[in-house]
Please model this.
Amino acid sequence: MPHISYSELKDWKFCPFYHKLTRVDKIDGFRGNAYTAFGTAVHAVCEKKLLKEDINEEQYFLDTFSECIADLPDDIEVDSSLVEQMVGQGKTLIPHIEDALNDYFEEFEVLAVEMPLMEPIEGEDDHKFKGYIDAVVSTPDGKVHIFDWKTCSWGWDSRKKADKMITYQLTLYKNFFCQKMNIDPKNVETHFALLKRTAKKNHVEFFRVTSGAKKTQNALKLLSTALYNIKNKRYIENRLSCTQGYGCKFYKTEHCP
Model:
């Protein structure tokens, strides 16, 4: 069945025309780099740690990172010096994961890892919401906690931590998780866990993201608006995104002059 994910929603919010080029026309879509390879490898270690699997965590990271680098398309340039730096950064980061989990949640039970979502969207008969929740744990106070691992450089500033579009990922995950599991949203809390490559201290940082009824309503409204425009092929260019931040890779190219 047709579906929409948070990442697709984020692309549409960035620019509907960018969404068309990458998601509909399949032009020059993102195919990974050394940073995504690093993130995949560290995420894999986090998953094993949560599942209490008996592994040599450092070697598992090294093997997975090497495989992810090797799997990148041949035309993607990989800086060998950057990869070497990332190997050292991963070795430094990984030993802090378990302690950070225990310090933040203290006592907890793992309920799910990489939990899939493919849930109906209210008012949308022909699309579902698709996602994967990195981890779901419960604590003795009866709360259920959803969290998402994010690899980054030194961390996030307060503006990024509060960014509406970034936090909508957890808002939507919480909404559709509660729908899937028939759980009262008041009993579910959401968190990001930052896995910092270059930090000198506080290598793993958890922080809570609040997602009340109003924020959930706003996130779902944005989701419905995106689907309405996508289904009606309304691909309006958002010129504010052309050079904003990192800018758009299609800016002043044959695809978007």
The two ends are 34 Å apart (CA to CA). The chain has one domain: 3-241. The domain at 3-241 is CATH 3.90.320.10 (Lambda Exonuclease; Chain A). The longest strand covers residues 124-138.
